[in-house]
Specification:
The structure is a single chain. This protein is α/β, with parallel strands linked by helices. The protein has a domain at 2-105 and 124-209: Rossmann fold (3-Layer(aba) Sandwich). 49% of the residues lie in helices and 9% in strands. It is built from twelve helices and six strands. Strand 1 (24-28), helix 2 (33-49) and strand 2 form a beta-alpha-beta unit. Helix 8 (210-221) crosses helix 9 (252-259) and helix 10 (266-278) packs antiparallel against helix 11 (301-318). The protein starts with a helix and ends in a 6-residue tail after the last helix.
């Protein structure tokens, strides 16, 4: 059954490529199991189609706050993938996307005083993931572009609701402003076992190491049942996220990774927990929102300076750059605007 489902996915994707051989095929790659399976299915379909050269891009959206372990894995894999693509001579390319500096996570938190995201105020996804991809598509010819996503049925109730609106079709339409482009979902009908089989047994690209990816999932999921046979699918089906994510109450995957020996993650984990703790502290927030309505507003300037001091300490502890010089420049400018408002208008509602 697994082989049949994967073979069908490849056959349908090959037909899709043959229907649109002159389109720009853009594969959204996060480094996780689903996007890896989608990439492998598309590359297998390309070989089966016999098309030869094809305009194909693999894009990775760098939010700047990705899980450091997965981020290192993905960026290393992308470098190797580009080298492999160059050897093939088919014109395939990899591209790393990033939000404009004014929209980045810590510019919003430290500069503008945004509270960390919650389910009711989940401002991060659009700004850090969706808009960079949309801008990339807009810079192409949207009418001649197909965005390939590793979305699946039964992955979550929310995702199933959105897929149901499109009758669970592998072809969907994405609208951005006054333009739209096509989405193609090659692994829509695959379950977790089939996804892992695709990751392990589809041969290309060889630059992506399935065993390394599976170990990351296994360590992030905690203990798993023993795999009894070499052909049995890995049990790990967890999900990675940003190390700053406060949408979930507890970052279980990060905790599991630390327990599995990834001690380098502990400082990030501790900072994330502290940020979640201060989020709703009234002493850390303006007493009104920026539009003047009652309720907790942005972080105070003092709180933002405290957060930046904590980030500085985290950079020293982890020996990494978390907020770069361009972001620090924008943050300083935003602080000046709010300081001017506080001194001249005796409040913040006019900002």
């Amino acid at each position: 059954m697994t082989d049949d489902l994967i073979s069908s996915a490849i056959d349908e994707a090959a037909e899709a490529l043959l229907q649109r051989p002159n389109h720009h095929w853009v594969v959204a790659f996060s480094g996780g199991k689903d996007s890896t399976a989608a990439l492998k299915v598309i590359l297998a379909a390309h070989r089966k189609s016999g098309l030869g050269k094809l305009r194909l891009s693999v894009i990775y959206c760098d939010t700047g706050v990705e899980n450091p372990i997965l981020d290192l894995y993905v960026k290393s894999a992308l470098n190797r993938l580009q080298q492999e693509f160059d050897q093939w001579g088919l014109g395939f390319a990899t591209t790393l996307l990033q939000a404009p500096v004014q929209d980045r996570f810590f510019v919003r938190i430290v500069g503008r005083g945004y509270p960390p995201p919650t389910n009711s105020f989940r401002w991060c996804t659009n700004g850090l993931r969706i808009r960079p991809v949309s801008r990339f598509i807009a810079a192409q010819d949207p009418a001649q572009t197909v965005l390939v996503l590793g979305l699946r049925q039964s992955e979550s109730q929310q995702r199933d609701r959105s897929l149901k609106k499109a009758s669970f079709s592998k072809w969907q339409k994405q609208t951005e402003g006054n333009k739209d482009y096509d989405l193609y979902l090659p692994i829509l009908n695959l379950g977790v076992p089939e996804v892992w089989d695709a990751v392990f047994w589809l041969s290309k690209p060889r630059s992506i190491d399935p065993a390394t990816l599976e170990k990351l999932y296994r360590d992030a999921s905690g203990e798993c049942p023993v795999i009894k046979a070499p052909t049995a699918p890995p049990c790990a089906s967890g999900r990675f996220g940003c190390w700053t994510c406060t949408v979930v109450r507890k970052d279980k995957s990060a905790k599991k990774l630390i327990d599995a020996g990834y001690e380098d993650l502990r400082p990030y984990f501790e900072f994330r927990n502290w940020l979640a703790e201060i989020r709703n502290d009234p002493s850390m927030r303006w007493p009104t929102r920026r539009n003047g309505t009652p309720g907790l507003g942005p972080f105070t300037l003092e709180a933002r300076k405290m957060i930046l001091q904590r980030i500085d300490a985290l950079e020293v502890r982890t020996r990494t750059e978390i907020v770069d010089s361009s972001e620090r420049g924008v943050i300083a400018g935003l602080w000046e605007v709010d300081e001017f408002a506080r001194l001249n208008f005796k409040g913040i509602s006019a900002v």
